[in-house]
Amino acid sequence: MIETPPLVDQHCQGVLRTELGLGTFEAQLIRSAGPPAAGTTFFDTQTGFAVRRWCPPLLGLEPHCAPVRYLARRRELGAAEAARRLLRGAGVGAYLVDTGAPGDLTAPKELARAGDAEAFEAVRLEPLAEQVADTSGTVAAFLANLAGAVHHAAAGAVAFTCGAGARYPAALAQAPEPPGPGEVRGAAGRWLAGRAKGAAVRDPVLLRHLLWSAVATGLPIQLHTGAGEPGQRPEHADPALLTGFVRATAGLGAPLVLLGGYPHHRSAARLAEAFPHVHADLGPLLARTGAGAAAVLAELLELAPFGKLLYSSGGRRLPELHAVGALVFREALGRVLRGWVGDGAWSWRDADRVAAMIAAGNARRVYRLDERA
Amino acid sequence: MIETPPLVDQHCQGVLRTELGLGTFEAQLIRSAGPPAAGTTFFDTQTGFAVRRWCPPLLGLEPHCAPVRYLARRRELGAAEAARRLLRGAGVGAYLVDTGAPGDLTAPKELARAGDAEAFEAVRLEPLAEQVADTSGTVAAFLANLAGAVHHAAAGAVAFTCGAGARYPAALAQAPEPPGPGEVRGAAGRWLAGRAKGAAVRDPVLLRHLLWSAVATGLPIQLHTGAGEPGQRPEHADPALLTGFVRATAGLGAPLVLLGGYPHHRSAARLAEAFPHVHADLGPLLARTGAGAAAVLAELLELAPFGKLLYSSGGRRLPELHAVGALVFREALGRVLRGWVGDGAWSWRDADRVAAMIAAGNARRVYRLDERA
Amino acid sequence: MIETPPLVDQHCQGVLRTELGLGTFEAQLIRSAGPPAAGTTFFDTQTGFAVRRWCPPLLGLEPHCAPVRYLARRRELGAAEAARRLLRGAGVGAYLVDTGAPGDLTAPKELARAGDAEAFEAVRLEPLAEQVADTSGTVAAFLANLAGAVHHAAAGAVAFTCGAGARYPAALAQAPEPPGPGEVRGAAGRWLAGRAKGAAVRDPVLLRHLLWSAVATGLPIQLHTGAGEPGQRPEHADPALLTGFVRATAGLGAPLVLLGGYPHHRSAARLAEAFPHVHADLGPLLARTGAGAAAVLAELLELAPFGKLLYSSGGRRLPELHAVGALVFREALGRVLRGWVGDGAWSWRDADRVAAMIAAGNARRVYRLDERA
């Protein structure tokens, strides 16, 4: 048996506080541009099957029970109690919570209380800029306030997170260096003049400025990559497109953590091999690929140095996703490493050591959690 | 054991009626720009080994017998009787036949009779346009006749099929919307003026017009993707390049079925997850990867919703390919799903249900076969 | 059991003659732009684990012993004796040595003596051009001397090797044909005027000229592809980008061997399927992916004709890498083929035959080794 310490879930969001009907629950299972096609259901996916395998027992039901039965039991317990049982069943010791997600989600402390775990904040750069823009009258004030806000966030959070890697990899590839001050002022002026209150920042120059402001703090930066949201361009999913930015930030002190990357996760592993400051995340692969997770995990373990891989659930909105991420991870990691020990390729001792690194140790080191707790 | 109903082979062509020598037979096994390299044979491929495993027993020989022995037995039986035995050994209940392939191939009804199955027609758009061009005197007549021909084809066929996704993905990526009427007239005029009778349509504007004419009928459209023909540009093989077209056709009613995709089949699965009207085909992977098919199939099953995956053989010219597709599929699907049930990840009941969906149910729903039969 | 004949290692470099400390040894294990990140070591990689599994027993220690213990034993034996034991433990019958690598490395004959094997030379084109440039006074002399040097190299070597496929795939994609004489003269003039003595050739026109000069000799050309050196652009790693060059060289007589390709190795296999003169190398995948090598090898065996796959270790500097490549290869190939025989998909006879082809027979045929020995 491969034993792991309590996990560090290095990338997740809060959970919904409200009761959920079958349709609302189902809509959170996969990342789709629309409702299920006629004659199909999102429960008929690896994520759906993984939820039905792992979650019913945590609420006192048989594994693989029908979705309608599971949802009835969930309502019977209430959303808060169900979340409590699911999160505590996951064996997680610490959460890094992306607090920039929209919706009425639990804050880090609330998630920590429900899950009997520590919680740390990862600040998403785009909403930070949007909040600053909402309260700044001029371009100069916006840029000064933004610098202050990034600096202030760095003092309280353990990481920044940014979607520019997934949305503008081509912009980052063509111009990996920090934009000049005049360029930034121009872009900020155009954005502030044209935006409605609360509108999202999408300007590539401003996003590069945000990223480089974050790099300057030395805090780790989580970069979204891979085929995630339907709005994203899948031909931009390969983390290899971030190589220019990776090279430009080498040696500056801020670790980069590549989130996702699937189906180009081997490129993320390759970057983690080639650049000392790059790390690869493996979480969202787990709940999304379910029964197939061991194979995907083995692919990440081909090239990535074992000190550079970090567990996360990628869980959001449904506590089921936080729990399934953790339970699929332990199962898949155990299966892969036991296999390699059985082949004689790895020793038990090394397998246990690597499992502990990926489960928790690497994240504790990269995010300096033991200094922040 | 995983049981499947009689398969729906949702993409294949007819089979050759003539007797085949060793060299002619071998040349159909893989998709090569030339004859085997000196010192090698196309029989030394996964497809060749799969044919030698599965087909000799259907003709009364030992599995893995030598190619020359197999071909002798095939000639002894005659091409028609060999085809009859091979097709009936495949356990296929219905074929969707692409009738646009060149060569002296069996028509759908003939294939159905030989295989004791139903047959439906999938109309390939390019040859349809070429036939219309051969008999239309002016640009206006060509466009009117083409509209009529697409409309008429939609009444008799269950699907359209088109190679533009494989040959012009960049054109579709840059201009996913329907071309304007003036643009279409210009392109049609240039093509009609320059073409020899029977010449292939390769103009990207016309191909987009064909695709959008097909979309308007609401019939499912099978789009070729992936590394197929040697003449195709392999750097264009990623179905992710079709995302713009996929997004432009969302919600219009016509399902899209992405054929092939290998080695980027995970991108096809991702599109099937992200867009309700997109489906992924898994057939050509099976006979082409043979003993390795279970691993490739498992990769497709990572992200694709189980209601969006469709079996096909991709068989063409040799009835061996229709048979091997079906037999490899059952073997590989059984192996993958039994493994997941054995791990506790899936229930038997779900495994049987998903097997039936991929084998036949999804195709029956998407192509409305039960209304057409 | 799958038996293989003595291997032909069709792509490696010489080994370091000097004693190595822990840090110097570790630095050779993976291809990184910098030293290990704080808190990590390159020994915690698949390559590090594979070295610790396979090499200690060849030097009389327990497998998986600690790196510091292994290095102490290596120093005790001396670099030469350690190399002798490691190379002889690999079961290699012939090495093709890329003699263009920088550093104080053993020459082919020395490697052959140490490993009790044959050795053949693969001439790297870039250093050949650089040596010619160092001793040529004019553009005309340079081009004439270069033609002579390529011709002369072809008489003594069994292959050329070239990095342009990895460094300039976009240039090769846009201009796959041989550059014209005026273009070559212009590029040579600019390069000769601007270069310091010994400076590397990076001009895409000159690299294309080198490649086409090599093609004209008819000797096999080994093209580097895939995610190799950190200096390379990972978005250029897909061998599919070489399709234009592959098509342009079809039928001219010079075999192409695609080195590496990971994580796009399936594209390399696809090119080997589609073009008679293309072959795929599988070596560097083995020592780099270690315990995961069987899965990667199985992926290469999906589409590549079995007569087109060639073993190599990709070993360089450390004889451990030559040995690990060979030992991982035999283990992984045996595991994959035994599995397929066990499934009934392959016969034992075919498995043994294919193992012998990949291990040695294909390389002996492609490089005409039996005529050169």
From TrEMBL, chains A, B, C:
Start and end residues of each Amidohydrolase-related domain: 192-369
UniProt protein name: Amidohydrolase
Pfam families: Amidohydro_2
Species per Swiss-Prot/TrEMBL record: Streptomyces cirratus
